[in-house]
Amino acid sequence: xxxxxxxxxxxxxxxxxxxxxxxxxxxxxxxxxxxxxxxxxxxxxxxxxxxxxxxxxxxxxxxxxxxxxxxxxxxxxxxxxxxxxxxxxxxxxxxxxxxxxxxxxxxxxxxxxxxxxxxxxxxxxxxxxxxxxxxxxxxxxxxxxxxxxxxxxxxxxxxxxxxxxxxxxxxxxxxxxxxxxxxxxxxxxxxxxxxxxxxxxxxxxxxxxxxxxxxxxxxxxxxxxxxxxxxxxxxxxxxxx
Length: 241
Fold this sequence. Notes:
Haemolymph_juvenile_hormone-bd, To_sf, biological rhythms, 7-stranded antiparallel beta sheet, signal, single chain, 42% strand, Bactericidal permeability-increasing protein, domain 1
């Protein structure tokens, strides 16, 4: 989920307003893809506090006000608020492919992150593992050995005589090696039931994750496509690449 912010990094790496401590890449150079890969990885720890001059929020943690999963199409509805994601700074890029034309832009990435940790307030009601689940409180979800596939497609458009980019397609596919869950205050604070449910969630982590995977990916795609377009639609295409 988290690797979607890489699109944001691609933008700031090649923009003229990038602070001097960040590595820069020009698309005309022969080793552009290798340069961009190194520049993105180098930027992760430098973006811990964001870049105020570009109105980029902190990376560590990355904050999302609200994510809702399962509404209208699942027996269980899970809502996260004050969602904070830690660990993106340790991401490494395994594969990168970038395609440019005069009217289109495409980016494909495969990444690996050793561990990401989510801290949030949650509200859940429904059924899971054929059992009822209900709760409202704080939670921690950790994804280990996270592999991410990210694909972005965009088109250019004209505005005030200049060319800009708008992302039209944004897909994310997350594959964790393991997930652990800790939901506090399940079943109105019933400690015995809460401990038992957390145990079941962790013993069956893959089944639980597969239940929410599609909705979670879609929620992140919407968040980050909008996030990226706030930059791409304001900075001319020729200044970005």
